[in-house]
Amino acid sequence: MATPQLSTTTKKRNKSSANGVSSSEKGKLGQWGRAWEVDWFSLVSVILLLCLAPFIVFYFVMACDQYQCSVTAPVLDLYSGKSTLIDIWNRAPSFRWSAAKIYAIWVSFQIVLYMCVPDVCHKFLPGYVGGVQDGAHTPAGIVNKYEINGLQSWIITHILWFANAYYFKWFSPTIIFDNWIPLLWCTNILGYAVSTFAFVKAYLFPTNKKDCKFTGNFFYDYMMGIEFNPRIGKWFDFKLFFNGRPGIIAWTLINLSYAAKQQELYGQVTNSMILVNVLQAIYVLDFFWNEAWYLKTIDICHDHFGWYLGWGDCVWLPFLYTLQGLYLVYHPVQLSTANSVGVLFLGLVGYYVFRMTNHQKDLFRRTDGNCIIWGKRPAYIPCSYNSVDGSRHQSKLMISGFWGVARHFNYTGDLTGSLSYCLACGFGHLLPYFYIIYMTILLVHRCIRDEHRCSSKYGKDWKRYTDSVPYRLLPGIF
User: Fold this and answer.
1) Residue 309 and residue 243 in contact, taking contact as beta carbons nearer than 8 Å
2) How far apart are CA 427 and CA 198, in angstroms?
3) 75, part of any domain
4) 208/284 same-domain check
5) How many domains does the chain divide into?
6) Cβ distance 365 to 297 under 8 Å?
7) What is the pTM of this model?
8) Is 390 exposed, middle or buried (0-12, 13-18, 19+ CB in 10 A)?
9) Catalysed reaction(s) (predicted)?
10) pLDDT digits (tens, 9 = 90+) for 237-269
11) CA–CA distance, 380 with 402 (Å, rounded to integer)
């Protein structure tokens, strides 16, 4: 959508805010991306996250390294005086140049695959959409082009991983686990470096000035980002690369390294470790198979690139999304046949609901409702909205299929799959269940964000829609 051009007279009549955008301009520009201004609650939340998130990651990693994955033991040690924070810090493995070399090679390799190896998978994989694809319109009216080759990068990376493990033997398959804490320092360095670079870039040489949002508050702008789609050159897109390459491609490699370590320590890989590897690999492969579709999601279409994405994708994702595998290295769990089948079934059901819900929405959009969902033509709520240039548009909100069960039933499927990863670890410790707790908070918050945006966009039509589909995630409950 094109950003409206206000006349000089209009600009003079309106009092400018601290970030150079007048109140009337903000109204016309709408609520794309993050907020224009920062309320006290948002500011406090941002500062708390900036301060606490790195320590949360450190806490969980140290709990495994020093306390056999007990979440409560470090607190009890500190409370009783058996240990101090300095003791825990001093026992942590320090930064190592060997780990920095490993991580630099890893990130550089992914950059090469992203920038220099055009996708060929779409030429021989039926149904896969790859190659050069258009993103959504940015608020400035720009349509960025993306080289969709994440699936190809994942395949190449894993072929080389297995070729090394069984043939070349350049390094041990346990290399990631063996350098896990030194790699934590390396990922933090990159996370803060790229976040700071994006922050400075937005002021000095933004990719597109009209796709920037300045609140004038350092902490909020640094965390939530200023630029919508920061890029270097034509193709290196910060948001797509960091959202989808070093962290997510590494996710399955990290789990494989955990499995290799379990084999080294105990002489076998437990069925619970296999389940975690398989179920999370399905999720990762689904992400890359649908990478072109991902260009139309909230992450790409609404989030700005700041510390939240830059540091989060470098540190939070690889270290906390893989806690189940890490836990199983320290506490191998061999599930009974019934329990392992139950966990697998739950994970596959969650994936099916997640994928089919998204498929139904995509099919409805592509065909403008001229399709069959659950054996019949889908019902919908007709609605309208104004774009930033003042023009009126017509749209449809589907109330059939999974979208008639709950307004965000894809999130319900995602949470079901997330729960299966945790249940694979048994009930010996709380630590593996951090993931489902975190994902519940994240997706509920995303529900509220999305619905606030939709309410502002569709007005009374959104109320008609919520009356028809009253629940967000769980029918009869929420």
Assistant:
1) yes
2) 42
3) no
4) yes
5) 2
6) no
7) 0.88
8) exposed
9) cholesterol + NADP(+) = 7-dehydrocholesterol + NADPH + H(+); 7-dehydrodesmosterol + NADPH + H(+) = desmosterol + NADP(+)
10) 999 999 888 999 999 999 999 999 999 999 999
11) 13
